[in-house]
Amino acid sequence: MNNPVIKIFPLSMPWQTQDPFLFSVYHYDQYPKGNGEMGPAPELLKGRNLGNDFNPYEKWRMYHGQTIPGFPYHPHRGFETVTIVNKGFCDHSDSLGAAGRFGEGDVQWMTAGRGVQHSEMFPLLKDDQDNPLELFQIWLNLPKASKFVEPHFKMLWNEDIPIVTESRAQIKVVSGNYKSTKSIAPAPDSWAADPDNEVVIWNIHVDANSDYVLPAASSSVNRTLYLYDGETIQMGGQTITNNHGIVLDSLKEVNIKTGNKTAHFILLQGKPINEPVAKYGPFVMNTDLEIQQAMEEYRLTQFGGWPWPYPDHVHEKDRGRFALYPDGTLVEK
């Protein structure tokens, strides 16, 4: 069998993933002009289920935000998040005192480890034009040996992330190596930090009416390709429409032929951790008992508390892209 396609499935919310990934979510919101205070105009909020606005039939959502879209403070333990912001901006604040504003192609890699609280808000910075947001958040598991490492976050700035151009395709190498092109190192305790685990996160764009060959991996690992924007494509002798995932044989290269629209993909690949997974909301451990212990510790300690004035903290409106790390190091872009 030379067909690299193992399975095709429609994308749900969140996207289905394979070990070592836990899930991935894709947010595309056509946010309106800002109201001067980084939220939408009050009249646009009437009738919305504020605090739990995930209506897929609307052009944009507030998620758990009341006045500014996004996700006010919430805890994580036992895994890591990779947040890719292709359009718009995300304001990060956390219980370590770290903070940042990133977007327009930047990526934040956060290892929750033993526990951290953070908020992810989507400030509407422009008052004279719309504020579209395109964001992916990918949850990557940590093995048992790394569940209690110290929390850490790292910014991968858009200017530094390698982009490979091949004929009529562009490949943004967030994690892993694309042929001879190496990605930026992830957070130090990540499952992706060991190259033997072949963790790959690529954002691939293939022009309309083009052919592209996705190279094979060097070993047998879990590999899933997500077509999140585009029209019909041809792959492995099959016709695949937009908003579908494709489980691939990692040892086979893949010939992709696009239709009349540029096709946009996310590729997630990695060696499986092959450990039991116990999940409850923002906690991912190996057993139910460990989940109960995580919940109890969070109730007692709040994972260090919340040093910011508001649960939905955002930074100054005129602030540029920046990262403030727990040790006080400040990087401004």
Radius of gyration based on Cα positions: 20 Å
Label the structural class.
Answer: mainly beta
Give the CA-based shape. globular
Distance between the termini: 49 Å
User: In CATH terms, what is the fold-level topology of the largest domain?
Assistant: Jelly Rolls
Number of strands: 26
Strand order, sheet with most strands: 1-20-17-22-15-12-11
The CATH superfamily of the largest domain is identified as Jelly Rolls
Q: Briefly, what CATH class of the largest domain?
A: Mainly Beta
What order do the helices and strands follow? EEEEEEEEEEEEEEEEEEEEEEEEHEE
Domains (count): 2
CATH architecture of the largest domain: Sandwich
- DSSP strand (E) fraction? 35-45%
Domain Pirin C-terminal: 202-304
Family: Belongs to the pirin family.
Domain Pirin N-terminal: 60-140
Organism: Flagellimonas sediminis
Strands, helices and their partners?
Elements: E1 5-10, E2 21-31, E3 70-76, E4 79-87, E5 89-94, E6 99-103, E7 107-111, E8 116-121, E9 131-141, E10 152-156, E11 163-166, E12 169-175, E13 177-178, E14 181-182, E15 200-206, E16 211-214, E17 222-229, E18 233-235, E19 238-240, E20 244-248, E21 254-257, E22 263-270, E23 278-280, E24 283-285, H1 288-301, E25 322-324, E26 330-332
Antiparallel strand pairs: 1-20, 2-9, 3-8, 4-7, 4-9, 5-6, 5-8, 6-25, 7-10, 11-12, 12-15, 13-14, 15-22, 16-21, 17-20, 17-22, 18-19, 18-21, 23-24, 25-26
